[in-house]
């Protein structure tokens, strides 16, 4: 347990975290090498709060603005920020810092690390930094996804500062061209599939040149399509179940209609490559697609003239869930061994809007982020953002739903998410059937659980 670690050595706990992240091979390095905390002080008379994050480029600029706003808001603490790109080893650097006794005071993360690091005793429970009354109040107020992402075994370890959820984007010009009414968006996945078939376009040689409907990945679509991965009341994981087979089969059949190789060639030719400007929806390569709320901000920046609309992912007619989506996002953690826990907590409250949600509303609009509580969404600055970007309202509507769920909170969460995505990829390439993919997924997870048990770690 994360709060009963007195008999477990630091190296053992770091090893447990590495096992959950698939990084056991670097254990010897982690327990023998320390990191040094960066020093870039503008207010040397204040208590420093060392803050690590993974944003780069234009995103780093926005983070720096929030840090500067906090430093100007009070005279006790100075947040000193360090950008450590995820590709540059942010996870391993964090573990090196904890092992060497020099962790940051606070870190912004978006990887699936909370269950693993909390189980290993590497994170400070944040609910313990509030009064019981304040914690119960915040727990009631938080959007369901915000609460679930930060929790592990009924303790709060991460405070969200920007949630991601998925919904449908669609182009009214394409719909009108196909004789479809943009004001009557489909209410079921089956109907949406029919629209997609009417919107597909092919060249004279039968090559796909416009995809009528591009669903999200299986994890984005599973709940709407009738599947589920986790029971949040009973703490039960679901993988190779009839409901999950049916939900993945729906995606498999959608892809099979167009041809597995045909879709792969089509998407490869778009060369989207992670650049916002290259997103196929903006270029007209997709008529309807499932994507995240940050695309609203990208359209505002790069295609402000584009006519488009958004809608929740419609449920499957039988067994599907309304207002359903997977969720991930950015969250703040405070490691065990942090030297300035109080200063870190003040910064977390400032950015997240736990304190003064009307002030924090501006921070969420900087990146097109979804807030932690309705109080932030209802603040004047956020309401102005919604008036200026009305298609963002769809994501707030979905955010309030109990059918928005993050990855199940198991200690092997990273491995689980990777395995789910591999099952999805194999199926969408036509390499295996949904039944074969989920049988393999179940076997992979059971093997991981058995390995953890052999090493003495919890399931």
Structural descriptors:
459 residues; alpha/beta; D-Maltodextrin-Binding Protein, domain 2; 2 domains; two-stranded antiparallel sheet; 21 helices; 14 strands; disordered N terminus
What would your notes on this structure say?
With 459 residues, this protein is of the alpha/beta class. It has 2 domains: 10-164 and 327-405, D-Maltodextrin-Binding Protein, domain 2, CATH 3.40.190; 166-326 and 410-454, Periplasmic binding protein-like II (D-Maltodextrin-Binding Protein, domain 2, 3-Layer(aba) Sandwich), CATH 3.40.190. It has helices at 10-21, 27-30, 57-73, 90-99, 114-119, 132-141, 144-150, 172-177, 189-199, 218-221, 242-258, 260-270, 280-283, 294-302, 341-352, 357-366, 374-377, 380-388, 393-399, 413-428, 434-454; strands spanning 47-53, 77-83, 106-109, 151-152, 155-156, 159-170, 201-202, 208-214, 230-231, 236-237, 286-292, 309-311, 325-333, 404-405. The strands form 3 sheets. Strands 1, 2, 3, 6, 7, 8, 11, 12, 13 and 14 form a 10-stranded mixed beta sheet that branches. It has a two-stranded antiparallel ribbon with strand order 4-5. A hairpin with a 5-residue loop joins β7 (201-202) and β8. α16 (357-366) runs parallel beside α18 and α20 (413-428) packs antiparallel against α21 (434-454). The protein is globular. The N and C termini lie close together (11 Å). The model is unreliable at 1-7 and 23-37 (pLDDT under 50).
């Amino acid at each position: 347990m994360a709060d009963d670690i007195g008999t477990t050595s630091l190296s053992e706990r770091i090893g447990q975290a590495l096992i959950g992240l698939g990084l056991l091979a670097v254990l010897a390095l982690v327990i023998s090498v320390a990191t040094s905390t960066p020093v870039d002080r503008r207010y040397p008379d204040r208590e420093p709060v060392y803050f690590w994050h993974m944003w780069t480029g234009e995103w780093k600029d926005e983070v720096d603005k929030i840090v500067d706003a906090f430093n100007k808001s009070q005279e006790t603490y100075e947040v000193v920020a360090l950008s450590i790109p995820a590709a540059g080893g942010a996870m391993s650097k964090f573990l090196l810092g904890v092992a060497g006794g020099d962790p940051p005071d606070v870190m912004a993360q978006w990887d699936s690390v909370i269950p693993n690091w909390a189980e290993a005793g590497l994170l400070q429970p944040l609910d313990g930094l509030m009064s019981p009354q304040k914690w119960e109040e915040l727990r009631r107020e938080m959007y369901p996804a915000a609460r679930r992402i930060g929790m592990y075994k009924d303790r709060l370890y991460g405070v969200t500062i920007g949630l991601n959820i998925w919904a449908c984007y669609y182009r009214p010009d394409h719909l009108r061209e196909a004789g479809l009414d943009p004001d009557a968006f489909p209410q079921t996945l089956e109907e949406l599939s029919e629209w997609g078939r009417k919107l597909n376009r092919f060249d004279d040689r039968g090559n796909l040149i416009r995809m009528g409907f591009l669903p999200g990945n299986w994890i984005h679509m599973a709940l709407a399509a009738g599947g589920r991965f986790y029971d949040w009341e009973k703490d039960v994981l679901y993988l190779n179940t009839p409901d999950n087979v049916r939900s993945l089969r729906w995606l498999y059949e959608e892809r099979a209609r167009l041809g597995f190789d045909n879709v792969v060639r089509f998407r490869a030719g778009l060369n989207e490559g992670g650049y916002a400007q290259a997103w196929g929806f903006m270029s007209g390569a997709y008529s309807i697609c499932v994507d995240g709320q940050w695309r609203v901000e990208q359209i505002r920046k790069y295609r402000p003239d584009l006519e488009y609309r958004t809608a929740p992912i419609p449920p499957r007619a039988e067994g599907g869930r309304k207002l359903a989506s997977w969720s991930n996002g950015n969250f703040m953690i405070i490691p065990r061994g942090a030297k300035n826990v109080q200063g870190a907590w003040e910064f977390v409250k400032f950015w997240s809007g736990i304190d003064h949600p009307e002030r924090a509303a501006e921070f969420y609009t900087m990146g097109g982020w979804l807030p932690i509580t309705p109080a932030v969404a209802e603040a004047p600055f956020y309401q102005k953002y919604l008036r200026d970007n009305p298609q963002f309202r769809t994501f707030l509507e979905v955010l309030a739903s109990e059918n928005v769920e993050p990855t199940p909170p198991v200690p092997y969460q990273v491995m689980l998410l990777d395995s789910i995505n591999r099952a999805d990829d194999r199926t969408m390439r036509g390499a295996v059937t949904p039944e074969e993919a989920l049988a393999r997924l179940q076997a992979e997870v059971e093997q991981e659980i058995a390995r953890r048990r052999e090493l003495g770690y919890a399931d």
